[in-house]
């Protein structure tokens, strides 16, 4: 599994969590806090704290999804991209290995130096 597929799986999981968080909020201010426990004073979190937690979680999930989408876009290879092909460079003629000739001497051998 590549990095792109990993990003996509995490994005899908966070998207489902974001939908659940948004659906648990009430636009009139009740939301999750009024669903579980009504308006009683024995709640673990108050209405204000629950709404603030859900609001912060919504923004956090949104930012995480955007960052992961950008990361997935960077790691995904574009199949339509123009690929540059480096041309094959041949070696210069004088760097070729010596080729033997009919008389047994090689063509690229330098003449012998005179003795001093």
Description:
- The protein is mainly α and 116 residues long.
- It has a domain at 3-75.
- The chain contains 3 helices and no strands.
- It has helices at 3-24, 31-35, 47-75.
- Helix 1 (3-24) packs antiparallel against helix 3.
- 3% of the residues are buried.
* Main beta sheet: none
Q: What characteristic shape results from the CA principal axes?
A: rod-shaped
Number of helices: 3
Order of helices and strands: HHH
Proportion in helices: 40-55%
- What is the percentage of strand-forming residues? under 5%
The span between the termini is 72 Å
| Topology, number of strands | 0
* Class from helix and strand fractions: mainly alpha
Uncertain spans, ≥5 residues at pLDDT below 50?
none
